[in-house]
Design goal:
It contains 7 helices and 16 strands. It is α/β, with parallel strands linked by helices. The termini are far apart.
Amino acid sequence: MLGKISLALAAAMAMFAQATQAPSLPEPIRVNISEVIVPVTVTDIKGRFVSNLELKDFKLFDEGKPQTIRYFSHEQNQPVVVGFLIDMSNANRLHWKTYQEAAIDLVTQLLPGDKRYNGYLISYSNEAELQMDTTWDSEKIIDKIRRMKPGGGAALYDAIYLACTRRLQVKGEPLEPRRVLVIIGDGHDNASKKSIDEVLEIAQRKMVTIFGISTKAYGFAAEGEANLTRITGETGGRVMYPLEGVYKDVAGYLSTPSDEGNYALKVNTGGYAAAIASGMFRAIADVTGEVTTQYVLRYIPTDTDVPKTFRNIRVEVNVPGVQVRARKGYFPDVP
């Protein structure tokens, strides 16, 4: 009888010990990494594209470890899928006609009617809306742009999320064609349900490179400027500021007094409109040039079985005095 009690007591104590011991930490989810694509822009100190580099000039690091570049290309007019994201908030009402024509010119430049080049259109004000799904026909997108009218808030982050998740994909993405977004707006957001961190993660997961054509005017503050810089920088793109130089050479108010302040180029005059338009079209040319002249590197990481977390990328070029722009990293479970 005592033997049975002792056995029962021992079993109960064992069960208690098992129930109260610290739970073991779960193993991190691991995933096999497929090929990673890294579009790279190289410019000199004056911002001019450096277009004569070869594979041997590049070094690529994944989490600090050197990688073997399996694919290298610098062909002109590489196939792309471009998302055109246009700010339709109240902030863009004053110069909407200029922005509208600039957007149309950008679509025309990047979608020449060749089926290797596709694009789609998203407008954002109080909500983000897919105006035209993925197509190679630029006229379909241009027709939508001509019908758009600004008004309301700005749901920029929701627009980026929509671009990364809810549009028709082209076979071969993101390797060929690669994915690009171009934002025409000042970067402010006051209507999105998504956060900037959420959209950065989805853009990195989808291997999207984001560019911005800022509608911020010279001398004016834009609360979204830092956000636009962060979104583009971390995905390998950059922001152009076509309106920054419109008043840069204008003398101060005391030397050229006027009721509206120190504006030598008056609103509603031909000189003012021409300066705005000229700046916008220079930015269009810069974006088009960068999208179509990037170096494209692809590799399979040496660590093919890694935790499902963000991984950092670094690209180096063994040429002095150049600036290198590439995405900051990626998530290994890219859909």
